[in-house]
Amino acid sequence: MESARIIGALARMLRNVGLAEELAQDALVSALERWPEAGIPDNPAAWLMTVAKNRALDHLRHATLQRNKESELTYEIETLLQDAAPDLDATLEDDIGDDLLRLMFIACHPVLSTEARVALTLRLLGGLTTDEIAHAFLVSEATVAQRIVRAKRTLAEAKVPFEVPRTEQLVARLASVLQVIYLIYNEGYSASAGGDWMRPKLCDEALRLGRILAGLLPHESEVHGLVALMEIQSSRARARLGPQGEPVLLLDQDRSRWDQLLIRRGLAALERAGQLGEGYGPYALQAAIAACHARALTAEQTDWQRIAALYDALAQLMPSPVVELNRAVVLGMAYGPAAGLELVDALIACDALRNYHLLPSVRGDLLARLGRMDEARAEFEQAAELTNNLRERALLLARAQVCAGDGG
C-alpha cells in the first residue's frame, strides 16, 4: 500500500525512477526483517519513509563523493536533508499527493510505448509484481520485466523531469495517463485472451488509480468522466458471469445483481464532470451511455434513442471505426436491425476492423434478428475464429449453433 508513495517521494529526491524503486524495495525488505522482532511501529508509513529517505541520502552522499566535489559536499548534503523533510508526518500529509501525481505522469509519459506505460504504471503505482502483470496480459514474465527495464532506461536517457506538466502541456499529457488507466481497465473488464472472461484485479487497480487521480486533479472534467465510466461498468461485474464463469451479455443480465453503490458513485462522478466542463468529453460521454443502462431497471426500459444520440456526439468528438461499430449496435436497437446492418456493412472494408472479432459478431447478431440465420451462423463462426478469449469463443459458437438449429 505504501510502495507508490515511497517511490514517489524518492523519485523526487533522486530524479531516477528505477533507483527510487530499488531503494523503496530495500526499505520494505528492512521492515520485513525488523518488524517481526521489534514490532510494528506506531506510524509504519513514516518508518518506511524514514528508512527509504536515509538510503536515498546515503546514495546521494556516495555519488557526490565519487564526483570529487568535496568542497561542495557539506552544502549539497544540507540541501538534500532539507528536501528529505525531517517532519515526516507533515511530509506524508503535504507532499504525497504531489509525488503520486508526478509518478503517474512519469509512468505514463508519451516517450514510452503504450505497452511500457501500462507495465510501468501497474508496477510502480499498482504494486503488482512482474509475474502478476504477465499473468494479467498473458505474456511471459521475461517480456514484462524487459518492458519495465527498458521503460526506466528510456525515462533516464530522455531526462524526463519529475514534475506535473505545466498548464499548456497538461491536457495532452493527462490524455496519456487517462488512456493507460482505461487500457488497464478494459483488459480487466473484457479480457482479450485466455480462459477468463474478466480479470477483476486489473479493473480494481484501474479504478483505484482513477479515484486517486480524481482526488489529485479535482477540477479536470475528463478525470471524473473516466472514473464515472469505470464505476458504472464495474457495477455489473457480478452479473456478467454465469455459474461456470461463462459470459452473460448485457441484455441477459440479472440487474438486481448490479451494485447500486457503484452506480451511485458513478452517477455522482458524472455529475461532477458535467459541472466542470463546457460539455462532455469522450470518457464522460461513454459514462453517460453507461448511465442510461444503469438507470433502466430492465433491458426493455433502456432509452436506446438517447444512447444513439450520445453515440452520435461521441462519433463527432472521437471518430473511430470501433465507435462506429458500437453505434451500429445502438442504431439496431433504437431503429431496428436493418438500420444497424447498413452501418456495419459500410465498415466491412475498413482495414482497422479486418481482424476484429466484434465486427462479424455484431453483424451476426443483426442478421439473426432479421431472420437471416444461415448468414448469421457464418458470422458467429468467423468471430469465434478471430477471438483469443476461450470464454468468448464458446459463447460465439453457441450462438452459431442456435442459428444453425433455427435455420435448419
Automatic annotation (TrEMBL):
Its keywords, alphabetically, are: DNA-binding, Sigma factor, Transcription, Transcription regulation
Checking PANTHER family in the record gives: BLL0085 PROTEIN (PTHR47756:SF1), BLL6612 PROTEIN-RELATED (PTHR47756)
What InterPro entries does the annotation carry?
A: DUF6596 (IPR046531), RNA_pol_sigma-70_dom (IPR014284), RNA_pol_sigma70_ECF_CS (IPR000838), RNA_pol_sigma70_r2 (IPR007627), RNA_pol_sigma70_r4_t2 (IPR013249), RNA_pol_sigma_r2 (IPR013325), RNA_pol_sigma_r3/r4-like (IPR013324), WH-like_DNA-bd_sf (IPR036388)
**Domain RNA polymerase sigma-70 region: from-to ranges:** 5-63
Question: What organism is the protein native to?
Answer: Massilia frigida
Q: Where is the RNA polymerase sigma factor 70 region 4 type domain?
A: 104-155
Instruction: Indicate the family of this protein.
Output: Belongs to the sigma-70 factor family. ECF subfamily.
Ranges annotated as spanning the membrane: none
Instruction: Please give the name of this protein.
Output: RNA polymerase sigma factor
Tell me one Pfam family matched here. Answer: DUF6596
Q: Does the keyword Transcription apply?
A: yes
- The DUF6596 domain covers which part of the protein? 173-273
Q: Which domain of life is it from?
A: Bacteria
